[in-house]
Amino acid sequence: xxxxxxxxxxxxxxxxxxxxxxxLRRLPVWGLRLILLLAAAWVLFFARDTxxxxxxxDPGRFAVTVLxxxxxxxxxxxxxxxxxxxxxxxxxxxxxxxxxxxxxxxxAIRLQQTMVGRSRNIAPTDVTVLDWIVPLLVGAAVAAVFxxxxxxxxxxxxxxxxxxxxxxxxxxxxxLADQMLxxxxxxxxxxxxxxxxxHFLTILGQRYATSRLxxxxxxxxxxxxxxxxxxxxxxGMVIRAGVDDEEMVRALGINVTLVFAVTFFVGSFxxxxxxxxxxxxxxxxxxxxxxxxxNSLIVVIIGGLxxxxxxxxxxxxxxxxxxxxxxxxxxxYTFYSIIFTFVLLALVLAARxxxxxxxxx
Length: 361
Description:
- The chain has helices at 3-11, 15-46, 59-90, 97-116, 129-155, 162-184, 210-232, 234-244, 246-251, 256-281, 288-303, 308-328, 339-351; strands at residues 200-203, 206-209.
- The longest helix is centred in the N-terminal third of the chain and has 32 residues, at 15-46.
- Strand 1 and strand 2 (206-209) form a beta hairpin.
- The radius of gyration is 23 Å and the shape is globular.
- By secondary structure, the chain is mainly alpha-helical.
- The protein starts with a helix and ends in a 10-residue tail after the last helix.
- Strands 1-2 form a two-stranded antiparallel ribbon.
């Protein structure tokens, strides 16, 4: 159709039809807002037959639930931001992301045991801040180096072939899972928090572990550093430009191979940091790699693939759903709380098909 014909068609379009189509497009957004309003009213006033009770009756439980959601969201963000950073620039769905998460956790636990001097019955009082930070950095660095090697050896030669790259990284994750099972065993092991952060605060009459707040603080620092790197450094600006227009970056003569390697290094490093934090929060065990890969996928689908802002928003929404659904569902229905993850996905994608901050590829 010519431009003139298209102009005539639009000019002759029935205004009522245009208004109806606009209303239909906004229906999912209105529906999402209505559902959020109803959920807030339920939590505040009507959640009587629930484990937590109405928020106006027991504000302490409500505050603890909010903090649980935010602290878990911090861990989700650290893990998912690395995933979305790699995808945003390279369009690579790294199916080995969860394996790097678990590998770094295991390595950090082994190093912490070596630094403390024993492998069992380690008390928080035996662990200094250095005994936690050094394994964190080493575990994340190992994950980052492994990620770069994987990208250079296997993925570099298949750039632009997304399905092949996904299958390659899936195969690597299976191999890593078998090797970690052989080396570290199938029993869950835990990274011990430093004694300086294993205390309790009293919040509106409820005790709350400072280790979870420490985890949130680490996530905030990571998020701030990631934002500064992407917005204030040349490499970060090149990466953001590559997300928007990779062909233009190539045309400007920028070494895209180096940019890809740095991106994979940082994304894998973030997966490793998340793995160590996750091992401290819930332990490291066979199978958790798949669980955290799924968590990363959920976060970036909600927030939008390739968007760091989306990773923040997706982490907060997902973390809140995980925290609130078992606490504010009627007691006899709490086992249905897992369904609300998929309800959240459906609502967000109905309102924003590309995610909250995503754009068409």
